[in-house]
Design goal:
This protein is of the alpha+beta class. The protein has helices spanning 2-15, 100-108, 118-125; strands at 25-30, 36-39, 48-53, 130-134, 137-143, 151-156, 162-164.
Amino acid sequence: MQGRHFAALFAAALLYPIQDSSAASVFRCVDADGHITFTRHGCNSEQEQHLQDARNHTPSSGKAIPLADPNRRTSGTTTNPGELVIVGQQEDGCGNLLTSSEKRQAIIRKEIRRGMSRADVESSLGKPDRVTASNGQQRYHYREKRKGGSSRQVSFDEAGCVKGK
């Protein structure tokens, strides 16, 4: 019976991970341009190397780690409190003249609006019956399928954005 307890204790000891001190260390590499890279394998010879402590302490495991100080001001440009600053906006290639909601509504209503792309026009009206090009600008021509129906043309600028109807 005592042998089973010893075997179980030995098996549990093998399964328990041993803390590796290198697992908590990360190298912070700074190149000549100031770009920072973090790695566990060391830095290139052209980079400045710093050893970082990268332990993720479990909750209530010791002294609290302070978060960012909200009263600390960073140097650099400041913005007006009422000024809207957009960070990381997606560029649609047509100057973002339409919001995604406006674009979606126009496509549903089969409307063509300035700032739509060729793909937006094709989503709205389908493939054109005829395509012409002159001076780097393209035109899509659409005809009504009914007898005596009217025709419609859409002009694109050099970037492939709707210029006019």
